[in-house]
């Protein structure tokens, strides 16, 4: 069964790929708006892990709507959620048997509700696969450290193929650097550099 797995190049999506690999023909897919070179990083990580990689271009209106939502809310969660759902919808229409992601049990954003997952499956005739759904962050960190070489650092320093990186670029271009600090809390990101 062919699985298209949303892939950022971070530890969660990389670990999800490793867990799904024995059961699926995994293709790692990075959703992009082509406003940064983040998809290139994800492609390099996918190659270092031994997986095929594709890029799917999302409509720029999705990014614009997400940015407006983040500005209205004053935080990124709902905007990132909108982009993730749009990415899953786009993947589901690409002809794969299954679509999935690296979301985990305790994620705040993105997450996928059971009704959204069932609707996605019913409307597109795909399976929705979430290899990390039963794991919390502490467990993910331990499992990933055993199998992956990981670099961590501030979000703005580590480029990877995630929605946040591109949404930050859109915000910066349209509203300046000061808005980034207002919307996004300081936090640490992880980037995979290969297998252990």
Which tags fit this structure?
Rossmann fold; alpha/beta; globular; 8 helices; 7 strands; 196 residues; 20% strand
Short note summarizing the structure:
The chain has 8 helices and 7 strands. With 196 residues, it is an alpha/beta fold. α5 (114-124) links the parallel β4 (98-100) and β5 (127-129).
Q: How would you describe this structure to a colleague?
A:
Helices cover 48% and strands 20% of the residues. It is α/β, with parallel strands linked by helices and 196 residues long. The protein is globular, with a radius of gyration of 16 Å. The mean pLDDT is 93.
Mind sketching the topology for me?
Elements: E1 2-6, H1 11-20, E2 25-32, H2 38-49, E3 52-57, H3 60-73, H4 77-92, E4 98-100, H5 114-124, E5 127-129, H6 137-147, E6 148-154, H7 163-175, H8 177-183, E7 188-195
Parallel strand pairs: 1-2, 1-4, 2-3, 4-5
Antiparallel strand pairs: 6-7
Helix pairs in contact: 1-6, 3-4, 3-7, 7-8
Query: How many structurally independent domains?
Result: 1
Order of helices and strands: EHEHEHHEHEHEHHE
User: How many H/I helical runs?
Assistant: 8
What portion of residues is helical?
Answer: 40-55%
The backbone outline, from C-alpha atoms, is globular
Q: pLDDT under 50 segments (min length 5)? A: none
């Amino acid at each position: 069964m062919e699985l298209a797995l949303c892939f950022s190049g971070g530890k969660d999506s990389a670990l999800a790929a490793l867990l799904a690999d024995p059961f699926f023909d995994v293709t790692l897919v990075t959703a992009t708006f082509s406003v940064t070179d983040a998809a290139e990083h994800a492609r390099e990580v996918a190659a270092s892990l031994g997986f095929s990689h594709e890029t799917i271009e999302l409509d720029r209106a999705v990014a614009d709507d997400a940015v407006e939502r983040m500005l209205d809310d004053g935080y990124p969660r709902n905007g990132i959620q909108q982009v993730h759902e749009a990415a899953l919808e786009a993947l589901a229409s690409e002809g794969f048997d299954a679509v999935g992601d690296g979301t985990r049990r305790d994620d705040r954003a993105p997450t996928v509700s059971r009704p959204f997952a069932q609707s996605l499956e019913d409307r597109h005739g795909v399976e929705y696969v979430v290899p990390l759904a039963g794991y919390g962050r502490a467990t993910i960190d331990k499992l990933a450290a055993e199998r992956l070489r990981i670099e961590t650092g501030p979000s703005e320093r580590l480029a990877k193929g995630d929605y946040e990186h591109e949404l930050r670029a859109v915000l910066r271009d349209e509203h300046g650097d000061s808005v980034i600090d207002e919307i996004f809390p300081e936090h640490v990101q992880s980037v995979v550099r290969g297998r252990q």
